Amino acid sequence: MNTTARYIIVVLAIIISLHYIVSFSHEGYGRATSLSNIASKLKHQPSGASDTDITGNSDTSYYGLPGNLPFANETLAINRHANATFVILARNSDLQGTVRSVREIEDRFNRKYRYPYVFLNEEPFTDEFKKRISVLSSAKMEFGLIPKEHWFQPDWIDEKKATAGREKMVADKIIYGGSVSYRNMCRFNSGFFFRHPLMEKYRWYWRIEPDVHFHCDIDYDPFLYMEQNKKIYSFTITMYEYEATIPTLWKTVMDFAKKHPEYIAKDNALGFMSSNNGDTYNLCHFWSNFEIADMEFWRGPAYTAFFDYLDKQGGFYYERWGDAPVHSIAAALFASKDQIHFFDDIGYEHNPYIHCTKDKAKWEKGKCSCDPARSFDYDGYSCFSKWETFMGKR
Question: Which one of 29, 50, 316, 376 has the fewest beta carbons within 10 angstroms of its own beta carbon?
Answer without folding.
Answer: 29
